[in-house]
Amino acid sequence: MKISGVDIRPGNILEYEGGIWKVAKIQHTQPGKGGAYMQVEMKNLQDGRKTNVRFRSADTIERVRLDTKDFQYLYADGEDLVFMDKDTYEQIQLPADLIGDAAAFLTDGMDVTLEMWDEKPISVALPEQVEATIVEADAVVKGQTASSSYKPAILDNGVRVMVPPHIGSGTRILVDVYERTYIGKAG
Known about the structure:
- The protein is mainly beta.
- It is built from no helices and 16 strands.
- A hairpin with a 2-residue loop joins strand 10 (111-117) and strand 11.
- The model has no long low-confidence stretch (mean pLDDT 88).
């Protein structure tokens, strides 16, 4: 399916220069002179190369539809992660770098989606948001709670996020896995 250069979003899988690429980051830029463009950071899912490409709104690129299959994360085995097919109970080992920075949010028993291309797993998608517990957060500075300033906090998995001043240690929060941002308190 062809999409416009400005419709590219993080997580999209694109066919570019004969390879399969996953979009990591995008930045929409509108210079004072010339047309707007989308600066796209992509990672090749076959060999791990990274590249930055500019796509203008007039450019079209092929978005690849991958087959998806539900798996469950079991455990880490050195540099590899072990997943189990939820239908057949077969286990599969994949390199941790297939997930990237989001691997810090993996927990035992977490349901994930493997994206397959030609029957080969090329990407692991975690849930968009997860619950995590804050283990360390700076104290509130008097008078700072009225402004919309955020403070750093460290989660139980070691990830650092910015949270509102009223959130303290021990609080369960929802975190966006891919943006690493605070969404709200956990229900």
